[in-house]
């Protein structure tokens, strides 16, 4: 069953002023379409002047804050729609489809992405013990929430450092630590606790997820994977689906198909050889599952993507 989630925020003059400053900073440091790296290693600025088609990615843990525009993110059959000054947290590595649904040259889509290091979250929990340890519970490894003023101020201070590069080495880690602290103290903070605290079942699922991201082309034994993370096969299946909205086999299939698409775009290899490389037993099985995810056969899909890239480069 499809689940649709959206979130909006009420107007506020103070928030609007901060948002305007964030937008101005982003337009300077992300002057054109694309994902822009910054002098702060974990900080990325994303811009689009037009709505986009769905882009399939394997999203590492991170915080995303939309400053301007609107986006839809799909996890399995669940849809999450969010807009300015709301944030999305991806707490475990997930195969997602993201589509900008509101953007224009005058009002471009602007998004801040800050990578999350679970080890840093774990250290922060240890150092700030009053945060506490949550009750064990498995929820999605992705959630939306409203941004509050303390978190917004911390984000703004982090971006302001781009104008004072000499201060980045000293002050950026402090701003990032405050941002993660605010997330932990927020209504959804328990979800970050769960992936950072060793020996919780959700942390074990995150270990299974990282193993799959490294070994996705190999045959998958649920029993062996469950034994590796010290869970029963039934507990692995239940907890894994609670966190990712997919079974381990469905998750592996998403990884395989996304990597196959990347290889087909980057290499001149034929479809059959890429399918075998990704662990598929027959070209017809590979083509069928590829078409189901991307909406067209591998050859037609890659031809379309290459035509779009050529058109964009000549524009």
Characterize the structure shown.
The protein is of the alpha+beta class and 315 residues long. It folds into 3 domains: 3-194, Jelly Rolls (Sandwich), CATH 2.60.120; 196-250, Arc Repressor Mutant, subunit A, CATH 1.10.10; 255-314, Arc Repressor Mutant, subunit A, CATH 1.10.10.60. Helix content is 49%, strand content 20%. The chain is built from 12 helices and 11 strands. A 6-stranded antiparallel beta sheet has the order 2-3-10-5-8-11. A 5-stranded mixed beta sheet has the order 1-7-6-9-4. α1 (13-29) runs parallel beside α3 (149-160) and α7 (222-228) packs across α8. The radius of gyration is 20 Å and the shape is globular. The mean pLDDT is 89.
Number of domains: 3
Task: Report the biggest beta sheet as strand number plus sense, adding barrel if it closes.
Answer: 6 strands, antiparallel
Strand content: 15-25%
Uncertain spans, ≥5 residues at pLDDT below 50? none
Would you state the CATH class of the largest domain? Mainly Beta
Number of helices: 12
Rounded mean pLDDT score = 89
Order of helices and strands: EHEEEEEEEEEHEHHHHHHHHHH
CATH superfamily of the largest domain: Jelly Rolls
Adjacency order of strands in the biggest sheet: 2-3-10-5-8-11
- How would you describe the shape? globular
Number of strands: 11
Could you name the CATH topology of the largest domain? Answer: Jelly Rolls
Q: What oligomeric arrangement do these chains adopt?
A: single chain
Structural class: alpha+beta
- Rounded to the nearest angstrom, the radius of gyration is 20 Å
How far is the first residue's CA from the last residue's CA? 41 Å
| Portion in helices | 40-55%
CATH architecture type of the largest domain: Sandwich
